[in-house]
Design brief:
With 106 residues, the chain is mainly alpha-helical. Helix content is 67%, strand content 4%.
């Protein structure tokens, strides 16, 4: 087993554990809120996700282009996928700390 394979495998297992734990937390929260009969308020999400989405697409395009120059960059693609899944899991885990603020109904 090569060193890069072992690294990606260990990093992938860690990312999968973070994603699964965040996903389970999110599903439990959704099930808990499903039976809640209180009306929902209008939400204002002031998050700035456009720039992070732009950089994610840019990073993907750069990796695809770099694979054309050197085959060693083929390993960066799985790392980007693992980092993305880990980020989604972290978003589920820390989502309630930075919850969007409810607008008051006038």
């Amino acid at each position: 087993m090569s060193g890069i394979f072992a690294f990606i495998l260990a990093f992938g297992l860690l990312g999968a554990a973070i994603f699964i734990s965040g996903f389970v937390k999110g599903v439990r929260e959704a099930i808990r809120q499903h039976g809640d009969l209180t009306p929902e308020a209008d939400w204002s999400d002031d998050g700035r996700y456009g720039s992070s989405a732009f950089f994610a697409v840019l990073a993907s395009a750069v990796v695809i282009a770099l694979v054309g120059f050197s085959p060693v960059f083929i390993y960066v693609g799985p790392l980007l996928a693992i980092v993305t899944a880990t980020g989604v899991g972290l978003a589920f885990l820390i989502g309630d700390r930075f919850a969007a603020t409810a607008k008051s109904r006038a």
